[in-house]
Amino acid sequence: MIAQIFQHLPFEDIYAIEPWLRERGFAICYTKFFNDDKPPASNQYDFLIVLGGSMGVYDEAEFPYLALEKAAISDALAANKPVLGICLGAQLVAHCLGATVRKNPVKEIGWFSVESVPHASNAFEFPSIAQVFHWHGDTFDIPNGAIRLAKSKRCQNQAFQYGHTVLAFQFHLEATRQSVAALAENCKNELNPNAPAIQTAQQMNAVPDFYFSAIHKVLYEALDYLTRTSKNC
């Protein structure tokens, strides 16, 4: 089995996803768009993970590879491959499903709570409330036919599910202390101390270890859900 990773920046990697993939026998293959890699056809992998990035969905003029990436994501969706979108990745998936991606009223950077939204019983069960790690300024509308899974007071659309093979999260369940530190170092220009929902680097790294173990539990449940249900479709 092959997990294909669409990566936009060197420091935005799969982090806590990697041990889950290794334990289940996935070979991990990367499309590193920052190295001008070209995405493979969907018949060359079994599971697609689209990671975050500082660019926006509509920034094709500055990042021409986004056009190729959108076509590749649409190919995976049409082929009914399991797809996980994270942050920018979630916005790209939403866009490929016909939804609008736009600026959120505020940037969310740091640890903030999200809550689940009531939905059909056969959808992924997101926790009723969870402290998760955010780093985003954009948001997505919920695509037609998708199920909204989570919201927060500053961002109404935090997560959605499409069918039984697609999950999209605005936040970073894969976050580790290493990834938080990497984002804080490489994107420190975004850490506006006067913004209403932006924590300092010190605040983001001062959380206890159970913050990470809690989000990883949800992450692994989501990965299990995607790969389990996709086999039954």
Overview of the molecule:
With 233 residues, the protein is of the alpha/beta class. It has one domain (2-230): Class I glutamine amidotransferase (GATase) domain (Rossmann fold, 3-Layer(aba) Sandwich), CATH 3.40.50. Helix content is 29%, strand content 27%. The protein contains six helices and nine strands. The protein has helices at residues 17-23, 65-78, 88-96, 177-186, 201-205, 209-230; strands at 2-7, 27-32, 47-50, 83-86, 101-116, 129-140, 146-151, 159-162, 166-169. A nine-stranded mixed sheet has the order 2-1-3-4-9-8-7-5-6, sandwiched between helices. The chain is globular.
Q: Secondary structure elements and their pairing?
A:
Layout: E1 2-7, H1 17-23, E2 27-32, E3 47-50, H2 65-78, E4 83-86, H3 88-96, E5 101-116, E6 129-140, E7 146-151, E8 159-162, E9 166-169, H4 177-186, H5 201-205, H6 209-230
Parallel strand pairs: 1-2, 1-3, 3-4, 4-9
Antiparallel strand pairs: 5-6, 5-7, 7-8, 8-9
Helix pairs in contact: 2-3
- What is the oligomer described by this structure? single chain
- Give the strand content: 25-35%
Helix content: 25-40%
Mean model confidence by pLDDT: 95
Q: What's the gyration radius in Å?
A: 16 Å
N- and C-termini, Cα separation: 17 Å
- Secondary-structure element order, as H and E? EHEEHEHEEEEEHHH
**Topology-level CATH name:** Rossmann fold
What CATH first level would be assigned? Alpha Beta
How many helices? The count is: 6
CATH architecture: 3-Layer(aba) Sandwich
Spatial strand arrangement across the major sheet:
2-1-3-4-9-8-7-5-6
Instruction: Supply the number of structural domains.
Output: 1
Main sheet specs: 9 strands, mixed
**Poorly predicted tracts of residues:** none
Corresponding CATH superfamily: Class I glutamine amidotransferase (GATase) domain
Overall geometric form: globular
